[in-house]
Amino acid sequence: MSAALPTLSLSLQFADARHRDQLPRHTVIRCIRHALAAPAEMTVRIVDAEEGQALNREYRGKDYATNVLTFDYAQEPVVMADLVLCAPVVAKEARELRIPVAEHYAHLLVHGTLHAQGWDHETSEEDAEAMEAYETEIMLGLGLKDPYRKRRGA
């Protein structure tokens, strides 16, 4: 018998509705809950390139739209965070990786949720390897493929 997954209060917003069919609410909840270690209150917002670029520029000083931004506000006792996913970037990356858009969204939801809990792949090579290994474990647990398989040549 597996342990119960943490509770999740979710607000799902589509500023760019083009991917609404690729990202049903139950899928978003499933991906995030599998990556959570504690109960959470989260907002997931799907944006267009303009909003994605503006947020990345304002909060990270990088003047381009990126795939996912994580705004974490608390990690204990409840994880509180916003995840912002940029629909055109997600679609472009999925095409380049030759994977379904829904699978790429799943990976980015897991990735962003781990960031919301303090995981960081930019602090050291060891941290990056640990985060990637955990992401892979979660993705496989969701019945999806290792998101890093192509980079590792598998």
TrEMBL record:
Its cofactor is Zn(2+). Coiled coil: none annotated. Single strand-specific metallo-endoribonuclease involved in late-stage 70S ribosome quality control and in maturation of the 3' terminus of the 16S rRNA. SUPFAM superfamilies: Metalloproteases ('zincins'), catalytic domain. Keywords: Cytoplasm, Endonuclease, Hydrolase, Metal-binding, Nuclease, Ribosome biogenesis, rRNA processing, Zinc. Zn(2+) binds at H111, H115, H121. Belongs to the endoribonuclease YbeY family. The keyword Metal-binding applies. Its EC number is 3.1.-.-. The keyword Translocase does not apply. This is Endoribonuclease YbeY. It is found in: Cytoplasm. It comes from the Bacteria. Binds 1 zinc ion.
